[in-house]
Specification:
The complex is a heterodimer of chains A (about 140) and B (about 400).
Chain A (H helix, E strand, L loop, with lengths): L1 H8 L3 E6 L5 H8 L13 E2 L8 E5 L4 H13 L5 E5 L1 H5 L21 E3 L6 H20 L2
Parallel strand pairs in A: 1-2, 1-3, 3-4, 4-5
Chain B lengths: L2 E6 L10 E8 L2 E9 L6 H6 L3 H9 L8 H14 L5 H29 L3 H22 L8 E2 L2 E2 L7 H25 L1 H7 L7 H7 L3 H5 L7 H4 L20 H25 L15 E9 L2 E9 L5 E7 L2 H6 L1 H4 L5 H10 L11 E3 L6 E4 H18 L1
Antiparallel strand pairs in B: 1-2, 2-3, 4-5, 6-7, 7-8, 9-10
The chains are: A alpha/beta (about 140), B alpha+beta (about 400).
The structure holds iron/sulfur cluster.
Chain lengths: ~140, ~400
């Protein structure tokens, strides 16, 4: 019940940021919005601009070109916001940590609150992660 | 009217190769287009050279998520070509079944997104809903919804159990019913005819000039399909048709993909019933020095892998060429002369991703002021459909 209560009392808007992923994580995020999972029931909405976001879902292995972009985008996000690293790529770098063109993990560039491992994580795991991020958001609000 | 530039991209998170389009527009018309690729570069080829041949298949699986089996398909073909082994027949059949399931789910995904861009959100939701049927089958037989890790050089990792077969055939029946619905929805809807016919035409000559492949080429009357031209896996043992249409517009690209899904269902059914018993894996003992090439027909066209081995346990060189590389270039001709409302659709028709919002902005060339953003463009596209709907 606590999940429902939390989700219904606050509708988090999420922004999806890809930093050089293989798309699977991104597809699973969209999948959460489609009929089987349909998180919009709980007010979770994917927004088009980071300026509206409560939660940033970050996927991918942090390509060197995207580092700068991600930093700029993160600065534009309203505070407090929670950052969720979706997928092994953004959590720990996957095998892309050996690559010459990535700067993994994501937490080197921006602070990450919730990690969802998996390649790709299942939509259930993503939803659970978003719910955890809500807890983090609450904490951040209290500490302000 | 002053010339404006609309940058599109560079990040399309659902596309295997993020690219950056700059549309030069004069009022409503697109007069020129620049395509810049090379974003999202993760050094996959170099990573392959650091991995053993078994691991290479995992690495290439992570090139693209939508068709996450097409790169492994080409990769196993390539490694087996170099090592001069052939996988057992059962493995070939199962590989083919997986590859075709993948094609259905990829085309469904595209159909949904295309529906979204022209304002048919119902199509979007339906397509993604019925796509789950395929994902469920995948989860049962491979253990994961995507990134299946099913292929290995010399065979496959997991067998399809006997009791699974009737279940899968049953679910395919359900899928076919939903595909029928989509076929009806596309062929009988006058609004869709008006909206998609004659938009983004790609002629046969253009296809040949740009070496476009896959459904993009087949929609323009170029009959090219690796499954027919150079059969790999068990494609020479099943009966299916290559779908080729003549007009090369967005409508034909939709038709090709929808009809291809029916063919895929046919192939899977034949594969499941015709699959022989026996081993599904041959051990790959050693790798002689030499070269290998592997081809596979991905949902978007031909994937080509090249490998050079120096006799060690890692490749000395690994080269990947994905189909979108050629297909994306065709936008240079198909989008020019279109209105901006059609440009979104035309760019989407070769199957890149448009899900990521705010990737597209119209910028006034002189002042650099934002004119349109991506959601405005989607809105423009959707409004055009609405107007057409009123007419009918
Ligand atoms: S974690 Fe896996 S599925 Fe997600 S982006 Fe990385 S490679 Fe792709």
């Amino acid at each position: 019940m606590s999940f429902l209560k939390k989700a219904l009392t606050k509708s988090p808007w999420v922004f999806h940021l890809s930093t050089g992923s293989c798309n699977n994580c991104d597809i699973e995020i969209i999948d959460c919005l489609t009929p089987r999972f349909d998180v919009e029931r709980f007010g979770v909405m994917l927004v088009g601009s980071i300026r509206h976001a409560d939660i940033i879902l970050i996927t991918g292995s942090m390509n060197k070109k995207s580092v700068k972009r991600v930093k700029v985008l993160y600065e534009q996000a309203p505070r407090p916001c929670a950052v969720v690293a979706c997928g092994t790529c953004s959590c720990g770098g996957h095998f892309f940590r050996d690559s010459y063109n990535t700067d993994t993990p994501v937490s080197k560039t921006i602070p990450v609150d919730v990690y969802i491992p998996g390649c790709p994580p299942k939509p259930e795991a993503l939803i659970a992660g978003i719910v955890k991020a809500l807890g983090k958001l609450d904490e951040k609000r209290k500490n302000r | 009217m002053s010339k404006k530039i609309i940058p599109v991209g560079p990040y399309h998170p659902l596309q295997e190769e993020p690219e950056f389009f700059q549309l030069h527009v004069d009022g409503e018309r697109v007069v020129d287009i620049d395509i810049i690729i090379g974003y999202n570069h993760r050094g996959i080829e170099k990573l392959c050279e650091m991995r053993t041949f078994d691991q290479v298949v995992f690495v290439v699986e992570r090139i693209c998520g939508i068709c996450s089996i097409s790169h492994p398909s080409a990769s196993v073909n390539c490694i087996e070509d170099c090592a001069r082994v052939t996988a057992p027949l059962r493995a070939q059949y199962i590989r083919m079944i997986i590859a075709e399931l993948e094609r259905i789910h990829s085309h469904m995904l595209w159909l949904g997104l295309a529906g979204h861009f022209i304002g048919y959100n119902t199509v979007f939701m339906w397509a993604w809903k019925y796509r789950e049927i395929v994902l469920d089958i995948f989860e049962r037989i491979t253990g994961n919804r995507q990134s299946y890790a099913m292929f290995k050089p010399g065979g496959i990792r997991r067998d399809i159990k006997k009791e699974e077969v009737p279940k899968i055939i049953n679910e395919l029946g359900e899928l076919e019913r939903s595909l029928e619905m989509f076929r009806g929805a596309v062929l009988d809807d006058p609004v869709l005819h008006a909206r998609l016919k004659g938009v983004g035409i790609l002629t046969r000559e253009d296809v040949i000039t740009f070496s476009a492949v896959g459904p993009t080429a087949r929609a323009s009357g170029v009959a090219i399909d690796v499954r027919k031209d150079d059969p790999y896996f068990a494609y020479d043992k099943v009966d299916f048709d290559m779908i080729v249409t003549e007009n090369g517009d967005v409508f034909d690209k939709v038709i090709v993909r929808v009809l291809e899904m029916f063919e895929s269902v046919r192939i899977i059914k034949q594969g499941l019933t015709g699959m022989p018993d026996g081993p599904y894996d041959t051990p790959l003992k050693d790798m002689p020095p030499g070269e290998g090439v592997g081809r596979a027909e991905a949902p978007r066209g031909e994937v080509y892998h090249y490998l050079r081995s120096d006799g060690s346990n890692t490749p000395a060189r690994y080269k990947v060429r994905a189909p979108s590389f050629m297909n994306v270039a065709t936008n240079a001709v198909s989008a020019v002369g279109q209105s901006i409302a059609d440009a979104t659709l035309t760019l989407a028709a070769v199957d890149p991703c448009y899900c990521c919002t705010e990737r597209m902005q119209a910028v006034d060339y002189k002042t650099r002021k934002k004119v349109y953003n991506w959601s405005d463009l989607v809105r423009l596209s959707q409004e055009k459909t609405q107007q057409l709907k009123k007419k009918f």
